[in-house]
Design a protein that fits this description.
The chain is an alpha/beta fold. The protein has a single domain (5-195), classed as Vaccinia Virus protein VP39 (Rossmann fold, 3-Layer(aba) Sandwich). It has seven helices and seven strands, in the order ααβαβαβαβαβαββ. It has helices at residues 5-23, 37-50, 64-76, 87-99, 113-119, 136-146, 167-175; strands spanning 54-58, 79-84, 106-110, 126-129, 153-156, 179-184, 190-195. A seven-stranded mixed β-sheet has the order 3-2-1-4-5-7-6, covered by helices on one side. The longest helix is centred in the N-terminal third of the chain and has 19 residues, at 5-23. The two termini are 30 Å apart. The mean pLDDT is 92.
Length: 196
Amino acid sequence: MSVTKDFLTQVHQLYQQLQKHDAQQTDRLLRYRSIEPESAHLLGMLIRAQQAQKILEIGTSAGYSTLWLVEAAQSTAGRVTTIELDLERSLQARAYARQLQLDAYINLLTEDALIFLQQCSEQYDFILLDAERDAYTQYWPYLMQILKTKGGLLVVDNVLSHASDVEEFMHLVQENMQFTSVTLPVGAGLLLVTAH
């Protein structure tokens, strides 16, 4: 099942709307900071190529990237669990998913990602990390445990646009010989991490 024209039209309109909102905000934390469309498109392709079924997103925001993950998950008979700390943003994401009739494929949690990761006993085929970057080093020990060892893929956004913010995290990933990683110059920069 390929991406439909209707889906592309609706997510494009949503992206424009979220970008317009962000342009009016001076405080970074009030912005939605959605993933770039080309990155979102690539995420969908990776899920399809990998045939990922158990998908985790850390950092829902208003749900733009979530829609792309879920749209791809439909074709793999997969399901997306997405975590957002801000209740208002969770509700927005839920509303957008309902609008596109994708809410049946989402488990949307409003909680602290670190607590979720500490308590998580499941393994995921595909993980998107796009949250507050200063927490990534804390997340890493738990991400290693929940990323499926055979064919699991962790994707981290903003590794080129905010290279200094993720420098310590990148170092932790690269020095761990259990994992291999590559940085793609797509959007704000995507780091792809997989177990050997």
